[in-house]
Amino acid sequence: MAQIHKKENLAFYLMLSFVFLIFLSLSIIYAFILNTDHDEVEFFYSSYRLYEGGERIHLDTFSRIPQVIYYVYGPVFYFFGPRILYGRLFSVLLSCFVLFFTYEIIKELTKSKWFGLLSLFILTSTNFILQIFSSGLSLALPNLFIVFSLYCIIKFRNPFNYYFSCLVMTIAVLTRQNLVLLFLVLLVYVLFEKTSLKNKIISIFLSFFTGLFILSNVLFKDWRVFFSQVLGIVFPRLVEFSQNHPNTGSYPGYFSFLHFIYYFISDVNRLPLFFVLSVFLFFFFFFDFQLFKKTLLSRKEVLLIFFMFVLNYLLHKFGWNASTTKYVMYSVILWVIIISVLLKAIYDSLNNFSSKKIFFLFLITLVFSGFFLMDRSVITNPFTGETDLSRIDQVSNFLNELTRENDKIVILGEGTLHVLFESNRKTYAPLSHSYFVFTNSPDSEQVKRFGFYNVPMLKAWIDESDLVLIPEDKEFLKEREPLSYQVFEDARIAGKFKEPVIIEDAIPEQLIRSEDNNLEIYFKKEYSNSSLS
For residue range 449-492, what is the model confidence (pLDDT) as tens digits? Predict the structure, then answer.
């Protein structure tokens, strides 16, 4: 008997090592070949500059992304240098911890290490998850906080689990503001838990003061900016000057029913295994609702995760003003936990060993089929063409030859920031977030105070700058940032710049939505550099 148990353990740990090796290998490959995203480099650039230059860049980003992500990613670039690849590899490392805590949670809830292993296979065989976790988007880090918060609740058996779980979920909200619903659900759970009033009060106050501590650098410097940022966590449109944004309301039908249907179908397309298993579970438990109810009520933590998943998914699909398929990733770990728990309930309900074995083999076969469903729209085949990273690396080296380290650079248009980041050059902080922080407000002092920018400020920056980076195809820029483009065009017509240096094939085309992805560098008339001659 002991010999059989020893062989089973050996088989299990070999498979566990195998799935982690597969996840790590595929994730690293994706880190090299994934197409770039504007948000990705926006986070990286802000993180690096926050540490490297001490700039209060979080002021102009808070209405979109809170500041914890900058504090976590910043040291990576500070110590290793500003490279997109370094940020992606760090995301892969964070994702490994996400997998570890997910496994531990499911093993605890199902009392089965094999179903914990199955959950890892589900995650690893879903290419969309690998691609997202391999990118620099703000998804690996908040998922780590979510799963670690749940781990504290499920694994520990003392009052400190409530304290620590609420604290970690608070940090998750300050990493990504759209996770606030998860925090509120957790808070309700703690308030109704059978624990002392003292423990509940400590949990609430610990979360409250953790948030204040993280935001204290703003609170004590400017309370109006602080409250604008706090409102921005949940209600971005209530942030100061947002109503003066020239693009506010410029997307008719964005919140239409067809919009939601489109992204729901996109979810199905990119997470087919999750939906197949969910449909299977729905029909099974439709005919055995008592087992479903018993499974959910078997442990209160399962019910907590179930409500978290349902409410969080519905929020991001029907209640968040910028929801796309990527936003389903804020629910995917909760989803796989619920799927695993319900599958274990079905497995336990089967009467004989043969049926259990057939059921498990069916699941394994289904999971392995996911490895062959690759979304190739977000990657470049390195054997047939240059990847985004290799192209950006070449262009940044060229920019380094043409410019000096302390040059003042104005960037216009998405995609130019990628080159600037890789070449370790600086721009004016608000410009790294393009049109999101532009306002029509004429009060420049107030605009600067809140981290936004307007036309007078942009004019002053162009006048004092050494050069301007701008896409050669300006149609998209004129459509998206018409006033900013006009300020540059006026300066160009006034004869302030030399003839542009054009770098071909410089900007990833998906960023500028154009096949003409050349980059123009406009140097000031008085700018002198031997590399230009």
Answer: 877 888 999 999 999 999 999 988 888 788 878 888 899 999 99
CB atoms within 10 A of CB 112: 16
Q: How far is CA 281 from CA 126, 276, 423, in A?
A: 19, 9, 51
d(CA 324, CA 330): 11
pLDDT at 426 exceeding the cut of 60: yes
The three-state (H, E, C) secondary structure of 360-415, written as one string: HHHHHHHHHHHHHCCCHHHECCCCCCCCHHHHHHHHHHHHHHHCCCCCCEEECCCC
Instruction: Write down the pLDDT at residue 404.
Output: 92
- CA pseudo-torsion sign 25, 370, 150, 17: negative
From 242, 250, 254, 232, select the one nearest 436 (Cα to Cα).
242
322-372 pLDDT, tens digit per residue, is: 567 788 899 999 999 999 999 999 998 888 878 888 888 888 888 888 877
| HEC per residue, 189-225 | HHHHCCCCHHHHHHHHHHHHHHHHHHHHHHHCCCHHH
Residue 319 has what DSSP assignment?
I
- C-alpha–C-alpha distance, residues 117 and 115, integer Å: 5
CB contact at 8 A, 152 and 168? yes
Write the pLDDT tens digit of every residue in 405-422: 899 999 998 778 999 999
Whether pLDDT at 440 is above 90: no
Selection from 291, 293, 330, 324 nearest residue 309 by Cα: 330
* Cα Rg of the chain, angstroms: 25
Alpha-carbon distance 367 to 358, whole Å?
14
Coil, helix or strand at residue 125:
coil
Report, as an integer, the average pLDDT of 146-173.
86
Mean pLDDT score of the chain, rounded to an integer?
83
Q: Taking the CB of residue 280, how many other CB atoms lie within 10 A of it?
A: 17
CB 518 within 8 Å of CB 474: no
Tell me what pLDDT residue 429 has: 85
Q: Are strands 519-523 and 467-471 parallel, antiparallel or unpaired?
A: antiparallel
64-85 average pLDDT score: 88
As a whole number of angstroms, the distance between CA 164 and CA 153 comes to: 8
Given this model, what pLDDT does residue 252 score?
35
String of DSSP letters for 25-62: HHHHHHHHHBPP-HHHHHHHHHHHHHHHT---GGGGTT
Gap between the Cα atoms of 317 and 139, Å rounded: 16
Q: Which tokens is 221 given?
A: 């410097």
Please calculate the CA angle 60-66-70 and round it to the nearest 5 degrees.
85
